[in-house]
Amino acid sequence: MSTGMAEIKDATDLYLADFDRIERRTARGPGAWLLPIRKAAISRFAELGFPTTQDEEWRYTSVAPIAETAFERASADGAEVTRKQLAPYLFAADVPTIVFVNGFFREDLSSLSDLPAGLRIESIAAAIARDDATARRHLARHAKIEDQAFTALNTALFEDGAMIHADRGTVVESPVHVVYVSSGGVGPSVSHPRTLVVAEESSQIPVVETFVGFGGAAYFTNTVTEVVVGDNATVDHYKITREATGSFHIGTIMLHQFRNGNGRTFAGTFDGGLIRHEIDTVLDGEGCDCGMNGLYLVDGPRHVDNHLIVEHAKPHCDSREFFKGILDGHGKGIFSGRIIVRPGAQKTDAKQTNMSLLLSQEAQVESKPQLEIFADDVKCTHGATIGQINEEALFYLRSRGIHEDAARSLLVYAFAADVLDRVRVDSLRAALERLVFQKLPHGDLMGPHETG
Amino acid sequence: MLEIRNLHAKVEGREILKGINLTVRAGEVHSIMGPNGSGKSTLAQVLAGRDSYEVTDGHVLYDGKDLLDMPPEERACEGVFMAFQYPVEIPGVTSNYFLRAAVNSVRKYRGEPELDAVDFLSVVKQKAKLVHIDEKMLQRAVNEGFSGGEKKRNEIFQLAVLEPKLCILDETDSGLDIDALKIVAEGVNQLRSPRRAFVVITHYQRLLNYIVPDFVHVLVDGRIAKSGGKELALELESKGYAGVDGQFAKAELVGSRK
């Protein structure tokens, strides 16, 4: 046993202690139904412990810095975040926006008036407090804790987050924006934001989650998003990661699709330190259509790991994975995509594409497809490419008078263009195009890109 | 306008140009012909600034300035344009964006104000007619999914928009059917002016029925073996390159090895 001041070897005990606090509170308050789920989650986390690079699914990403840091639960107090600070991260001013700072709902920063009929947006804490039926039915029912330690940890410890519910037949065109801000504290801090999106039968809704960090001490965001796509419903989910340099972000997106459901995710990773996205889709009804898209910009020492699993549980479902990475500096970008076709899931059509553009000698890229097929009448393809700037194209642009630096940026932008085209919310796409331009070396040499 | 003196160049260690001498004045159209492997395209690439070609000797003066000293973009800004033999596809970049970036880059270099979207569009509309290009094509990615003829027409369209002084056409006629060839040639003829010069590189005499040159040069084994007026092209048509130079057989050998 270590003495009080000993160096931290593993912070597991800190999380277990934090759970005692949550447990006491849950037991006497509303949402007692959550307690058994939380208890199962914390004991699963205790069993699993933090993954190591010995674990095949974590081979390229070491979370030792997370396991060895004594993160304190981030506090709601003293977090000075203003609307002005948030403004650069809001792609459109007139969309419903719900903001959380350090994991806690901030009504003063949110804009939730005049919601369309059939659309509900609220804090999960509030939904639990009034014993909401949707929360009871779906919250923590979809994300898997069995072999995902971080998902288990979030499930045990989450306090708040956004709940978005579209009633049967509700079609919403304007996106809902969920913003999670880490304000950064004096010491290392952790938050466990939780999002639940439920689209009932034949409803349609776009949801954007943005994760933002405002510096301060190193912080750790451990987030889980559950997206439930009901029969014949459509959900377009976007996760924009713009965490602070030197921060840690581990996030799970669980997309559960029912019969004829249309689910699309887009993971745009632009800023942060160590980032891991676990993006899992279960196609749990016939006739589902699923798109999993992503763009990751890796620069400096940034480490981005996209870990995808799509599970074809029922026949006649299509899935499309399309991830592109732009790697510069001595960053590292990882894509691994597992496609599982369950017995009986005939007529599965699954396609996976991962393309990487390497801009420096030091950047590293890993791309790992995994197909596990237990049905015989299926179509599964995967492809990965790793390339550099096309010198022919570069010369062509230069020969027309475009400066070499601008030409390079233009080609990098062009590489990202087709994945950005899959962002179906116009205002978000325009904002991301501007962001990519900003991030490119010499991107300022180019004017605005008008695709029209 | 252009003075090439004793130009030697090699690619991947192999010498391709072995002492080219050529003078081109404003308003002139020069045709460079020659068998495969004689160095025609190498000459075009060297003039445009392709860095995979190493100039080992000689010099090139353009409007009195050392052309070889300039990066490709500066050459373009100074008014040199090469129509590519194999125009490059650039997925993700619309022709519209690309051309406007090019035009404004050149204008900026010349100290002229940049064109806004509206002005640019009116320039483009006017030039598009010249080579029968559908404006809708401008919304598409540069050369992506274009047919061979569309790609070549797009090169001449870019030429029309950028208004260079020295235009180098590298086998712009190759692979075109007669209708496409006529459109391309017509476009070029309309762009001829006393202030502009053309160097038309071609493998086939046929193009010169439509673009009538002032001078014809025959390139054989990295050197200009013979120069003359437009009648030289006709002579080549009837007699072949064999009549031009004793080195023909050697040149043909190089060509067939490629």
How does the SSE layout of this entry go?
The complex is a heterodimer of chains A (452) and B (258).
Chain A: H1 12-28, H2 34-48, H3 64-67, E1 72-73, H4 83-86, E2 97-101, E3 104-105, E4 119-123, H5 124-129, H6 133-138, H7 149-157, E5 162-166, E6 176-182, E7 189-191, E8 194-199, E9 204-213, E10 219-229, E11 234-242, E12 248-257, E13 262-271, E14 274-283, E15 289-298, E16 303-312, E17 318-327, E18 332-341, E19 349-358, E20 364-373, E21 379-387, H8 391-398, H9 404-420, H10 426-439
Parallel strand pairs in A: 1-7, 2-6, 5-8, 6-9, 7-10, 8-10, 9-11, 10-12, 11-13, 12-14, 13-15, 14-16, 15-17, 16-18, 17-19, 18-20, 19-21
Antiparallel strand pairs in A: 2-3, 4-5
Helix pairs in contact in A: 1-2, 2-7, 8-9, 9-10
Chain B: E1 2-11, E2 14-24, E3 29-33, H1 40-48, E4 53-62, E5 65-66, H2 72-78, E6 80-83, E7 90-94, H3 95-109, H4 117-130, E8 141-142, H5 148-162, E9 166-170, H6 178-191, E10 197-202, E11 215-220, E12 223-228, H7 231-239, H8 248-257
Main beta-sheet annotation of chain A: 11 strands, mixed
Instruction: Please tally the β strands of chain B and state the result.
Output: 12
Structure classification of chain A: alpha/beta
**Percent of residues in helices of chain B:** 25-40%
Number of H/I helices of chain B: 8
Helix content of chain A: 10-25%
- Largest Cβ-defined interface: A-B, 29 and 38 residues
Total count of helical runs of at least 4 residues of chain A: 10
Number of strands of chain A: 21
Termini distance of chain B? Answer: 33 Å
Structural class of the secondary structure composition of chain B? alpha/beta
Q: In the residues of chain A, how many domains can be counted?
A: 2
Regarding quaternary structure, what we see is heterodimer
Proportion of β residues of chain B?
25-35%
Strand-residue proportion of chain A:
35-45%
Q: How do the helices and strands follow one another from N- to C-terminus of chain B? A: EEEHEEHEEHHEHEHEEEHH
What CATH architecture label of chain B applies?
3-Layer(aba) Sandwich
Mean pLDDT of chain A: 92
Question: How many structurally independent domains of chain B?
Answer: 1
Tell me about the biggest sheet of chain B?
A: 6 strands, mixed
